[in-house]
Each structure stands twice: as C-alpha cells, then as structure tokens.
Fold:
Amino acid sequence: MSDDDSLKLVTGLVKWFDPSKGYGFILNEDGGTDILLHSNVLRNFGRSSVADQSRVRVMVQQTPRGVQAAEVITIEPPESDGQPPIADLDIEILEHLDSLPLRPARVKWFDKSKGFGFANIFGHSDDVFIHIEVLRHSGFADLAIGEAICIRVVEGPRGLMAAQISAWDSGLPRKDDQHDKDEDGQSGPHDSLAHVAE
Structure:
C-alpha cells in the first residue's frame, strides 16, 4: 500500500472482466488511468462476474501497482435498446419484471461458450433455463457452478426460464417487503413457483 491509501468514490464503465483470469478493468468516468477490479472485491459484493459496459460505483485506492477498486458499491447492467434480450421474453414481461418475485437459486451449470445453463430454485428440483443474453442484460458475464443467485422466473415455450438474474442477497427480505405474505397477510412457506405454474 502507498502512503495515501485513503478511499475515493468513483463511477465508471467496466472495460472488461475475465472471471477465469480473476480480474478486469473499469474506465474511470472522470478520466485518468483504468481501475483494476479484482475478483475478490467483486465476490465481496456477492458476484463472480460483471458484464462489460456495466456501470459501477466503486471505492478506489492508490496502490504501488496503480489504482484498484477496494469495494463495489453498485452495479448497473449495460444499457439496452429496450428490446427483450431473447425472443422467448415478450416485451410485456420486461415491462412488468419488477412485479415478479426474486427467487433464491443455485447455478446447476452454465457454459458461456454454449450460451446457456440451468439453475434450481431452492426447494425445487425443476431446472430453470438461463440464456447468456438474459445474463448479460442483468449485468453478469458468467456464472460458476454452485453460485448462489436470485432469479425472476417466467414460463417459457420450453419450460421455466430466468427473465432476470441478480446477486444472491438481492432477495433478502426487507422490513417493508410485503410481497411474500399470503392472502391472509401471513408470512410463511409457500410454493415458490406458483406464479409460473398456473
């Protein structure tokens, strides 16, 4: 560490991030040198990857090796053209995406070269299809086997599919979160797939 290891808040775009190399770089919005983003810093944020062109807010510090991200504050997916990432996702689904519940899931497998993979919602054995373009539109570049994530699920023409993916802690209940209560206003176990099974 240098003598000046004070942290500074910076916003920028992810230039590239390679999960297999374990690092990538952020273009500083204010100019200056690229910012190193190490996979450990990203993992502390609950992610194993981040899509190129995602907008990030990070706390950075100067080190002998240059400017490095010390903490990720926020990640916003790359800007889209407003069209669905894949044909199986109707534009109406995207317009009402936030009304779908976030479901905790674990990645069964994902192959970036094939462009797809599957996850399982906790407590359910059904496979949920994940397309790489949905992944990218959600701000991820790749997924690791066993990685914990949250997904919004829809019934596609060939079965359950993820319409949006987020970090695993996005689904943690908040004090003001009422969407998991049943018709009587009671919290409790319920069928996580009821919204897609009917």
Remarks:
- Residues 176-192, 194-198 have pLDDT under 50 and may be disordered.
- The first strand starts at residue 8 and ends at 18.
- Residues 39-44 form the longest helix (6 residues).
- The beta strands are 8-18, 23-28, 35-38, 55-63, 66-76, 103-111, 116-121, 127-131, 148-156, 159-167.
